[in-house]
Amino acid sequence: MKIVVLVKPVPDTFGDRVLSLETGLADRAASETVLDEITERALETVIRHAEASGDVEVVAMTMAPAESQSTLRKALAMGAAAAVHIADERLAGADLVRTAQVLAAALRRAGADLVVTGNGSTDGSGGVMPSMLAELLELPAATRLETIEITADAVRGTRETDGGTQAVTAPLPAIVSITERMPDPRFPALKGIMGAKKKPLEVLSLDDLAGELEGIGAPLEETEEPRSIMLAAAQRPPREAGEIITDDGTAAERIAAFLADRRLA
Amino acid sequence: MTQPILTLLLAAPAAEGAEPRLADGAAEVLGAAALVGAPVALVVGPESALPALAETAASLGATEVLTASVDTAQLGAPVADALAAAIAEVAPEAVLMPHSIEGADAAGRVAVRLRAPLSVDAVAVERDEEGVLAKHSVYGGAYDVSSAASAGPLIATLRLGSVDHRAEAVAPAVRALEVASTGRPAAVAESFEPAAQASERPDLRSAKKIVSGGRGLGSKEQFALVEQLADALGAAVGASRAAVDAGYVDQSLQVGQTGTSVAPELYLAVGISGAIQHRAGMQTAKTIIAIDKDANAPIFEIADLGVVGDLFTIVPQLVAALEARKG
Ligand SMILES: Cc1cc2nc3c(=O)[nH]c(=O)nc-3n(C[C@H](O)[C@H](O)[C@H](O)COP(=O)(O)OP(=O)(O)OC[C@H]3O[C@@H](n4cnc5c(N)ncnc54)[C@H](O)[C@@H]3O)c2cc1C
Ligand SMILES: Nc1ncnc2c1ncn2[C@@H]1O[C@H](COP(=O)(O)O)[C@@H](O)[C@H]1O
Questions:
Q1: How close does chain A come to B164, measured CA to CA in Å?
Q2: What pTM was computed for the model?
């Protein structure tokens, strides 16, 4: 079985992330680029499954600028057998629909029994990629799984939805997204880091995907036209610290008075 | 403002035999739609529930209601089929839905199908001379960004709890929508377990006041202190990821980067250090109060009132003081 995990390099949430006020795009030079943690969890989940069941090939795939390649090496060091990096300058600022088309084309090329993604990216968009890919690839999608069980012909799991817990299942091939409830990602061991250097890392340009893009009805030329436009971006003024007091036995009263003053209690 | 704005209102999953209600966010998306045009609703659910759900939609301000009956056990594709049919029928200027699991799934599918511009997790919609635009709060509230469609319709999901405006109730004008199924493969919902007990407390996403607890609470039992303080204030309960990971509360109460983003009048953080990813989900609150024993906790950098001290001493005293003031 071949499982493709979609991993995504994002600005590190531990740093100050900067948005260019001119383009509305991430200023990538301003912060360190790391694999989005949720996609590391997706990879961890799949690697554990591969370790337990054998006979599973784990491929990490991303569409990201060429500079972020080291993050794919990390995916290989964690245990993916191969990596696919779609990098093309024409994709800078690609909107969600174009991103989905390109990833779908690459997934078609790779041919996967199961595609696993995170439930949402920390760099701004919000968990629509899996269903967009499912639509383009004509696959069933089981999104936001908190538990997951992969068998030879199906994937099942549970998710929290409006008012309760839903058990869902899909026959393979399928696409799923997982949430933070999945296990913490491992730190690559030295052996993994050394081994990663020998593993295949394929870099694809849009031209390499021309045939597949045609196949899903989204030809190469479509890259040019953005569908949504950013009108304005403004930075909020940072918040300032207010009054800091140390409890001397009266702090509770102080808080109660503060709340009453502001009509919050 | 007569431009139709289509909203997607879904039946919430229901236990066997129970009548479904409209999923959370229905009133909000209709309220948002009313701000920029004429709110039209597509109500999607099991056949038997549609009349009641359509009536609710009208009571929430939908001037026109289209209904589509779907097998709710089939996830994703059938809702997208209905939404695509409604867009063809209504020719809306924008399409709004809650940023819930099902809302986001439908938005994603329809956006690729129609190659339409997609704005995800918007916190507001507005109209300017050019048309409808979506507003976003990016990088944990550090930036405000607005976006619009270069060629319509704009498809947007709205963050739950972000829109206060409510549309006025109207008399129901309901008709059934003809939907051609694409037969796309769908995942299947096998069963549904309703959450144990819907809490009496306000919903975290839309609450005006929130009391949040972190790892400093030390145990699930002691987390009850946060609940007592929340109840004394009539507030919702929130938590840090560390508190969720430690099992003190359910993940649905997590505030932050990868939890819920909130912007209440009052955010009271108890035993939360204020890691950047936590602040990303709450720093746009109007008033922030923090209680933490570590004077260097980063939460104090953004607190309007910061109290350095032991929460186990302060919180019970605060609950008593609040009760005393109520008289
Ligand atoms: C990609 C990513 C996403 C994340 N998303 C989120 C998110 O959505 N939400 C989130 O919250 N975190 C998130 N985190 C985790 C975040 O980095 C922190 O680990 C987490 O917020 C810490 O929670 P905490 O403040 O409860 O715990 P700690 O940092 O351990 O803080 C506990 C605090 O309690 C105080 N304390 C202890 N005992 C007492 C006492 N008796 N009285 C008073 N104070 C006391 C301590 O001084 C300390 O400041 C994310 C991390 C990553 C990498
Ligand atoms: N450019 C990308 N490259 C690889 N995977 C992606 C990309 N964008 C989104 N994804 C995947 O889709 C998930 C949801 O992303 P999003 O819809 O952007 O919030 C992420 O957790 C990733 O697994």
A1: 19
A2: 0.96
